[in-house]
């Protein structure tokens, strides 16, 4: 027996909306977890391919120029020769910011940024 398009979309949307496991979803959909694994990936790829051009675009990183504090010289220069600062934020599962840090110079590595955040 084949799985209809309606059933494929339903199980995919239910999986994405509830984060329930394949094992749990098999009872409400009568689709095996092995099939769900393949179907959900296939439907997500199809949704992405249809929506990505108009609705799912990468953010533009063309930010305004950073004006460094006076007297800092080349401290805020990054490898591209522009002034930059790092904004690091951590959010919880409710999409609420629980920590924000701004001001580390842009030439510092990720490890250096994390080290500066501890201070």
Summarize the structure.
The chain is 42% helix and 13% strand. It is built from 4 helices and 2 strands. The model has no long low-confidence stretch (mean pLDDT 84).
Labels describing this entry:
single chain, 119 residues, alpha+beta, 2 domains, two-stranded antiparallel sheet, 4 helices, elongated
Quick one: how many beta strands?
2
Terminus-to-terminus distance: 61 Å
General form: elongated
SSE-based structural type: alpha+beta
Beta-strand residue fraction: 5-15%
Global mean pLDDT: 84
Q: What integer value in Å does the Rg equal?
A: 23 Å
Low-confidence stretches: none
How many independent structural domains? 2
Quaternary status: single chain
For the sheet with most strands, the description reads: 2 strands, antiparallel
Helical fraction equals 40-55%
SSE topology string: HHHEEH
Strand order of the largest sheet: 1-2
**Number of helical runs?**
4
């Amino acid at each position: 027996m084949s799985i209809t398009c309606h059933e494929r979309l339903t199980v995919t949307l239910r999986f994405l909306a509830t984060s329930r496991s394949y094992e749990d979803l098999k009872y409400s959909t009568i689709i095996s977890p092995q099939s769900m694994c393949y179907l959900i990936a296939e439907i997500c790829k199809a949704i992405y391919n249809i929506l990505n051009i108009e609705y799912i675009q990468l953010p533009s990183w063309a930010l305004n120029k950073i004006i460094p504090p006076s007297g800092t010289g080349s401290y805020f220069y990054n490898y591209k020769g522009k002034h930059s600062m790092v904004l690091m934020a951590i959010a919880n599962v409710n999409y609420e910011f629980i920590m924000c840090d701004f001001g580390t110079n842009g030439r510092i590595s990720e490890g250096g940024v994390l080290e500066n955040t501890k201070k």
